[in-house]
Request: fold
Amino acid sequence: MTHHDTVDCRKDGLVVDINCSFVRRSPDQVACDMGGEVVILDLKSGMYYGLDVVAATIWALIERPASLSTIRDAIVSEYDIDAETCDRDVLMFLGEMRAAGLVEVSDAETV
Amino acid sequence: MKHRVQIMPPAPTPVSTSAIRSRQSAPGRVVEFELLRLCARLTVDSAVQSRIAALLSHELDWDFLIAIAHRHRVLPLVYRTLSRIVPHSIPEPAMLRFRGAIQANAKRNLFLTAALCEVIDLFRAHEIGFIPYKGPVVASLLYGDLSLRQFADLDIIVPVEDVARAKALLVSRGYRPERVMSEEQLRAFISTEKDITLLRDDQGINLEIHWGITTANDPISIRPQWLWEDLRPWAVAGRPVRTHSSEDLLLILCVHGAKHGWERLAWLCDVAEIVRSPGRLDWNRALERARRNGADRILYLGLALARDLLGAELPADVSQAIEADAVLKPLSEQVKGWLFSEEPVRLNLGERERYFMRLREHPADRFRVAVKQARFYLALTSRDKEALPVPQCLMWSLYLLRPVRLAREYGLSPFKRFVKGIFQS
Reply:
């Protein structure tokens, strides 16, 4: 099974090296779990966001800074999905989250 | 893989079942109250799961269950337990009501947490010490999730000398004091009370600034300085804060619950979850902190109720101490009766006075409580003035005549109970 090392998600401006990029939750949000789904409040905009169960799984994985490859591997092992599709979907999701200011992506674990 | 990011519009040990079955106050609602206490916990062992499943075979008034879960501020816990153990036993209309209520609660809690963060940032920028109290801190500390506890307002403790400054800062940020006071009135208020309420009308926020947790009218006095003695690091929405140690939090929760007659099961859930958290409590320290405040019985009452109703397992020596206090058994039965009454119980002054005195183990403390409560009897009311209209210069005479009027109207039994209460063990 092959997948890209670098993924370009131009719609959201997220161009990352999947093996070296780390994702963490933004400090400017507060979130809670509701039976597997997650509600997030962006402290800057005052907007609420809802995540379904799969998105909530990714959210749980980035409770501490996590590499994209770690996220992808966890999702692939939990859901019936190939790595390439997973890369694309995870990056699309994280791109939306980053655009909303809910996550930060960087090439260092200490972001 | 499908995922969804949806923007939402802005906007909540197995024990003997006789614990409730014996309640005279709730004869027709035994199943609902039993379900309430079995579900209002984070972890449910197999015996409790079986008991819950068995109870659901009975005819159940779901509307009443939801109503009492809300009244006792445990709706998120009850829904969480039911939806995990017996999801298919919840009728659709009840499921919809549960989900609507917990979604509203979750959004409200996030909103209040965001408001608390603003206050934290403000106080930190102006170097005002603070301890976030109850609300989001207890939700995250004890339940690990902001949505699992219901709270309606925000509470924050500041040093007594910084109350006026904190209030002025918040007023400059859009809050208004619930009671308008001059600086002199505020100083007098601070000397006798424990908190002031500020309102943010445009956002529906009630924020209480505390400098203490008890007043002279409460059954026990906790010094404001005591609240700052044993603090631990914690975080609210990523912001570093200090909060009370588990041992102090346990006592604070027990004092708060006791003075309000433990009218909400949620307060006992907090106690039970502290007790249940592995390695969280230093029991010797918790008992010592209570003893230094003369609050042994108040602590033991909270622990006994958490054990009996919510299955919190206590160390053997703590359980022995509870059994050794002859007052605790009837006292806890009295509180259980209030907790599981179909309508909230409102104590009259005499009942409150007797309950407060029973909370204290030392005769000297009971006497102090009695004297405080006696002030209610001595203070003149409009009825005294109506019963014997006197000119202003003779107003003092009403203080002498008030006991006579009360004795004629109510007899001597309140006075006898007052004296008896002091000398009861």
